[in-house]
Amino acid sequence: MTEQANGAAAQNDQPQFALQRIYVRDLSFEAPKSPEVFRQEWKPAISLDLNTRQKDLGNDFHEVVLTVSVTVKNGEDTAFIAEVQQAGIFLIKGLDAASMSHTLGAFCPNLLFPYARETLDSLVVRGSFPALMLSPVNFDALYAQELGRLQAAEAQA
């Protein structure tokens, strides 16, 4: 019996990660030049903006929100603006501060991005525009870039 109790205690000390829920927190679509934009030759210029934020929900639960904003211009006119806030609730415990920061800043957004990408694509198609197939994003590289920027800012201060 003691071996089982020790095994359970050792399991509790191990790092844990579990996805609890993925959901759309906010969704927006605007086509300010409709219907005129549909009568023009389609030469889109796409601008993409990514942002993440985290919130500690207590008891080792964390909310991570990935915001993906897309602005598409056709010539000088804005054809459409689409934005999704794709969120997830994650159970994360037993990680040191650096690992926790990386998990919340890169690993979780990596899990959320395919959902955000599919939601945006569906939204844009429902607006009667061509499918928007966003390329994969390397959140590990973005996270490392942001860490480098923060460290450089601290060194200058």
Would you state the CATH class? Alpha Beta
Would you identify the regions where 5 or more consecutive residues have pLDDT less than 50?
none
Run of helices and strands: HEEEEHH
Our count of helices gives 3
Number of strands: 4
How much β-strand is present in the residues? Answer: 35-45%
Biggest sheet: strands, sense, closure?
A: 4 strands, antiparallel
GO molecular function: unfolded protein binding
GO cellular component, one term: cytoplasm
Keywords: Chaperone, Cytoplasm, Protein transport, Translocation, Transport
Main location: cytoplasm
Explain how this protein is built.
This protein has 157 residues and is of the alpha+beta class. It has one domain (16-151): Roll (Bacterial Protein-export protein SecB). The mean pLDDT is 92. The chain has helices spanning 2-13, 97-126, 139-156, and strands spanning 16-30, 44-58, 61-74, 77-93. A four-stranded antiparallel sheet has the order 1-4-3-2. 18% of the residues are buried. The chain has three helices and four strands. The chain is elongated.
